[in-house]
Inverse folding.
């Protein structure tokens, strides 16, 4: 199984901290799963111009191909001005309409205000559904109070991240079994 962790902003540290924790849980509990961290701050990504994702070269080509080859994706994003960052939306725009078909997608959100807890429901989930992704039932919302000195200090957040990953792995395996059984019906 291949999992891509998409850090959807080029500024700030909280989302990066959260996804680094996600990565460490994967490495500790699921060492046989290939995990790739895609921190958009590490890449030079142009604005989407409508071409096929295979035509992008350099960093944009690497990021889009890694997402397309993944079996599951964890989208990590901060909330700025009650919205997702343009850098994250740009990545979604670079991918084809059905880019997330047969992929399980989970969401980890960081925000400075608890008032932003519905942004994943109103902005991120509709995009993922439109792109045919299979969403895990819940997402992890991490507020300002859950961090101290670039570390997550809330044990409940640690538990919820572990549960999110467990659900993600189980759902990915179940969907693979369903696809395999469906393909076996064809008999060739």
């Amino acid at each position: 199984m291949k999992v891509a962790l998409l850090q959807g902003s080029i500024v700030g540290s909280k989302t990066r901290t959260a996804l680094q924790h996600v990565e460490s849980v994967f490495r500790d509990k699921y060492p046989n799963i290939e995990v790739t961290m895609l921190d958009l701050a590490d890449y030079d990504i142009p604005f989407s111009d409508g071409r096929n994702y295979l035509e992008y070269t350099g960093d944009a080509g690497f990021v889009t191909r890694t997402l397309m080859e993944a079996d599951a994706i964890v989208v990590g994003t901060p909330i700025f001005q009650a919205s997702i960052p343009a850098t994250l939306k740009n990545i979604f725009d670079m991918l084809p309409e059905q880019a997330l078909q047969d992929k399980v997608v989970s969401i980890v959100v960081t925000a400075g205000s608890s008032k932003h807890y519905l942004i994943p429901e109103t902005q991120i989930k509709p995009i993922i559904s439109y792109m045919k992704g299979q969403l895990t039932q819940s997402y992890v919302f991490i507020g300002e109070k859950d961090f101290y000195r670039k570390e997550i200090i809330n044990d409940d957040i640690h538990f919820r991240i572990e549960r999110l990953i467990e659900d993600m792995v189980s759902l990915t395996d179940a969907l693979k079994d369903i696809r395999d059984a469906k393909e076996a019906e064809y008999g060739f």
Strands lie at 2-7, 34-39, 72-78, 104-111, 134-135, 140-143, 147-148, 151-152. Residues 155-184 form the longest helix (30 residues). The longest strand covers residues 104-111. Residues 2-184 form a domain with the Rossmann fold fold (CATH 3.40.50.360).
